Each structure stands twice: as C-alpha cells, then as structure tokens.
Amino acid sequence: MLIINNLHASVDGKQILKGINLEVNSGEIHAIMGPNGSGKSTFSYVLAGNEDYEIDKGEMFLEDVDLSELDSVSRAHLGIFLSFQYPVEIPGITVTNFIKTMINSNRKAKGLKDMQAGKMLKKIRDKANLLGIDSRFLSRSLNEGFSGGEKKRNEIFQMAMLEPKLAVLDETDSGLDIDALKIVANGVNKLKSDKNAVIVITHYQRLLEYIIPDFVHVMLDGQIVKSGDKKLAYKIESEGYDWIKKEL
Amino acid sequence: MAFEEDLDLSSEIHNIRSESFNHFEKIGFPNRKNESWKYTSLEEILKRDYSIFPKKESIIELKQVKKYFLYDLDTYKIVFIDGIYSPFLSDTTHDGLDVCLLSAALNKVKYKKIIKKYFNKTANKEDSLTSLNTSFTKEGAYIYIPKSVVTEKPIQIIHFASGNEGNLLLQPRNLIIIENNANAQIIERHQSLVSHQVFTNSVTEVFINSNANLEYYKIQNDLSDASLIDNTYISQEENSNSRVHTFSFGGKLTRNNLNFFQKGKNTESTMKGITIIGEKQHVDHHTLVRHAYPNCQSHQDYKGIYSDRSIGVFNGKILVDAIAQKTNAFQQNNNILLDNNATINTKPQLEIFADDVKCSHGCTIGQLDKEALFYLKSRGITEKDSKALLTYAFANNVLESVRIQAVKKRIKSLIAKKLGVNLVHDL
Fold it and tell me: What is the distance of C-alpha A38 from the center of its chain?
C-alpha cells in the first residue's frame, strides 16, 4: 500500500529525514519508535504533505500514486490521515460543523453529493458512541479548551468518520490516561481491517499493548535503523535506545 | 391653543436647526487634515450634487424587500423609502410604548416635554456632519420605552433607497429613549434596492436611563454605490447596560462614529463589530467611551477581514475621568488581511486620569494561521474552503454575544455568503 524509498526531507534548510525506507501493506500495523528529535513527527508531516517541509530526495507511493506530486488536500482524498500530536484549536467552528465540512469535502472530491443530513447525524452518533464521546462535546468549538485527552479522542473520532486507507497516529497516547487510552485503542482496533493500514508513532510501548503492531521500527537521526516485531518494543521499553546505537 | 404650542415648539427646533446650520457653514465638511478623518476621505462622495428631498414618493411592494427584514421574527417596524415614511411597510405602535416617527414627536404637543429634554442633548454639537444632520432634521425613528416596560418585540428601523431618485442625500434622525428599568432591542439597516449614488448621514441619539437595557444591531450590507456616515450617541445613566453590534459587509464608504457617555456609576457599555469587505470598499470605526463615574465597564471587540484593495480603520478612544475609579475598560481589534493590497489602520487612544483602573487594549494584524490551515487541508478540505472556514471562524467568535437568534442566524449566513463558505447546517 505505502512504499517509501530513500526519503530525504528538510525544514528551514535543516535536513531531518536522511533516507527512510518503509513498506506498509494492507491490513498491517506498524509502529515507529525513537527518541525525541529523531524525525518521527517530521516523517508524519512529510507523509501528510505539510508544505513547510521540503522533500530533497527519494519517493513515496500510496497504491502506486506518487505522493510527491500531491498537496495535503489530495493526499487526504487519497486516504491518508494524520492524527496530530498537537491538534490545532479553532474557536468559532464547532466539532460537528468541522466534521460535516470534512466529510462532504472528501465526498465532493470523489464526485459524490453531500451526505444526507440524517445519515450524517447517525454516523456521527455511532462513531461518537464508539469512542465514548459525549454529545455536548460535538457542539463545542474545535479543540478549543479541550484537555489533551479530549483532543486526541477528537482526532480518532475524525479518523473514524473519514475511514482512511492509511492512518498515521502521531503520539496519540501522550496526554491520555489509561482509561482514555483503552477507549482510543479500542476505537482504532475496531476501525482496523484488511483493507487499511496504521502507522503508530510513539515514544512508549504502553500504547502498543493495546494496538498490537505487526512491525516495530526504530528511528534514529532521520533513518529507520532497526526493524522487528513487537518484542523490539518491549526491549526498548526496558533498555532504551543505547544498545541500538552501539550496534550501528 | 394647541396650534400655538405647536408653533412655539417648532420655533425651538427651528432655533436648534439654524444654530447647527450656522456652525456647519463655519466649519464645513471634515477633511483629511482633521486628525479623526486622516484615513477616510469624503472627497469623492462630495464631488457630486445630491438632492436632499426626494421629488416624489416611491412605492415598494413588500415582496421586493422582504429579504431585508427579519421576517421570521415578530417585530415593530419603522420603514422609510428615500427618507419618506412608508406606512405600508411599517408596523408602529403607541400601545404602552411609542414606536413612531420623529416628525410626529417634533410637532405634537404631547411629546413637547420629552423633545425639549432629550432632542440634540447628547449629539456632539461641534461635529460637522452631526450639525449638518441637525440642520435638516425632519424625519427618522422616535422610540420611547416608558418606565419598567419590558418590550417583547424587537424594533426594526429600515431605510430603503429606491433608486428612483438620482443622487440622493439622506439625513435620518433617530431619537431613542429608554426609561428606568425598561429595555429595547433595535435593528437598523440602510439598503438601496438598485445600485445608485446614495449618501446617508444619519444621527441617532439614545438615552438609557437607570437600570435600563439596550441591544442595538446595525446591519450594514448595502450595495456598492451607497455610502453611510452613522453618528450614534448613547448616554447611559447608572446601572444601565448597552450593547451595540455593528456588522459592516457592504457599501462604498462607511463611517461609524459610535459614542458612549456614561453618566452614572455601574454602567456597562459593549461595542462589537465584524467588518468583512473587499474590492475598493472602505469601513471606518471610530469609537469613543467616556467613563465619568466610578465602577463602570466598557468592552470593545472589533474584528476585520479585508481583501482586494479594501481599507479599514479602527480608532478606539477611551477617556477615563479622574473621578472614574475602578473603571474596567477592555478594547480589542483583530484584523486579517487576505490580500497584499488591503489596508488596515488601527489605533487605540487611551486618556486615563484616574489611578485605580483596569484598561487593556490590543490590536493584531495578521494572515491566517498556517498551522490551522494545514490541519484543515490535511482533512481533505480544499485550500479555498479551508481559508474561508478559518476566516468564518475568526469572525464568528464575535457573534456569541448576539442575543436575538434570528439576528445571529442572519449575520452568520451573511458572513458565510460573503466568504463563500457553505455552512447551511450551522445557520
């Protein structure tokens, strides 16, 4: 589904990604772990098409479509979803309004008409229930004054509404208490199918107990330096990254 | 006898008119040398000759203009066409309160005392355009809410320009009095029906007595050849509360001179505005709040969105007299420039003579937040729609204090339309 070859990217002239190679197939869950500043968030931004980041070298394909030619809007239409580490607060737009605009924009790109109001409402209600979201939450301004946990839950709520092919969850576990973490992980697991894929970016192994990865990759200084299965995550949790650095 | 009193009264008004005219003749129209007109020039508008009185009465069918009313709301209406009262489109009352015409109030004996007490008492007699309006005072809205009357229905004041008159100068004069413990909700609109040169120089005097409450909504969404100078003077007695919202979306040139004079302790004045203009439109907000008693508040929040070559001006003057301790004055002016050619001139002007006060002011001029834009785009919302949505959100925030749902709904839809946002579900 996703193929990344020798990806180099920089921001403000500073090189961050220094040759990423990654292949993700339908039905798989990949975890990317790494210390602060290793380039994990940059990777997620580059994948989602943030224009602040320059691609210097390499290529990215989603189902044979060259992503480098597409802006963030088209990538979203193609089925890429990024759950932000720091979702932006937008006072003046309610969650419901945002969700509706988002859904209908994606439908329009596919040549479909706006979703019927009743259908939309039902879908919103179903997905909100799945993630334990209170209906009062839906009429609040987008992310404004939300707790860290509410913001993250709102991200997964959007993901549930959009049903993307490839979801990139950037530090979705940070700011979540254990109950919220379970709800969010449960939501992600329910959305998972053999037709889509998930990349989980995280510092900690904690989330990976609930969203169980097929592959774990370690990112250091802009490169994926080691890959393995979920046992790798346990080892990192107990021993840190130094042993990997020594191997290099 | 009644006739004599009429005469007597008329002569009093006559004196005020001629004094004002003399003053206007002496000082003339304001020009850019005048500090408060530095960024707004009337030159182009004044190049034309205008007819002051319409030659003939125009009839308008309700269906032609229905969309300019808040018709899904039960309201009193005072409607003028080319400056002439339209009984057909209006819905006035004398039942427990007066919602009628200034011409009637000026000429009838029973209003004599009130007119004498209030007419031209809070308007700035030094001001050129106010003087010009006073010299030609003839018609406008007269609203009198007696003591402790809680008005259930909002009052709409609407001025239509039919287009049947060439270059038209309109000078409506409104007088609004809210007695102790009473309240009123007013919606004012100036609207030309076909594009033609209309220049409106309006003066509104408002007196809010103690414990009384006013909500005033000004909807400025006129066609592109209409210009408006709105001079509003609000005098507030103790414990009174007034809120004025100004929505400026249309017109060629709009100047709002909004003045609050606090005349008693514990008064509260709120002024909010949303300006969304483009092309070569020009909107100027000049606010003045005079805090002259202790424990009073004022709250200003103006937002502006400017595209193309449009020009905005915000000048917020706050005066705090030495006696006005514990004043709490807040002023905020945030602007977004969507094009490089758009301009905003913003200036807070604080003159504080008391030492125990809380006064804060701030202004920002910016573009849309890049991070927010990426967030929306990453959800598949096109760049154009994302920008429109963010701009809508920026403006929308001001609407929280609008208490009439029908007004809120109307303004939201005007904003959405103006910004090209499709948010039907939110309206």
Answer: 17
B414: domain range?
A: 369-427
Nearest CB to A102 within list B372, B380, B394: B380
- What is the per-residue pLDDT across B385-395, written as a single tens digit (0 to 9) for each? 998 889 988 88
Nearest-neighbour CA in chain A from B47: distance (Å)? 42
ipTM value > 0.90: yes
CATH number for the domain harbouring residue A237 = 3.40.50.300
* Domain limit, last residue, from B237, B263, B289: B263
Q: A27-65 pLDDT, tens per residue?
A: 999 999 999 899 999 999 999 999 999 999 999 999 999
Q: Which residue has the higher pLDDT, B5 or A130?
A: A130
Q: Mutate which of B305, B368, B375, B408 to disrupt the A interface (most A C-beta within 10 Å)?
A: B375
Closest CA to B225 of B149, B298, B161, B176: B161
Q: Give CA–CA dist A108/B334, Å, rounded.
A: 33
Collect all residues of chain A within an 8 Å Cβ-Cβ radius of residue B378: 48-50, 72-73, 75-76, 81-82, 84
* Residue found by looking up tokens 């809210």 in the block: B178
Residue B9 in this model has a pLDDT that exceeds 60:
no
Rounded Cα distance between B140 and B159, Å, is: 9
| C-alpha distance from A90 to closest chain B C-alpha (Å) | 7
Range of the domain at A70: 2-90+165-247
Say what the pTM is: 0.83
Q: Is residue B278 part of a domain?
A: no
Short-list B365, B394, B417, CA closest to B221? B417
- In the predicted structure, residue B139 carries a pLDDT above the cut 70: yes
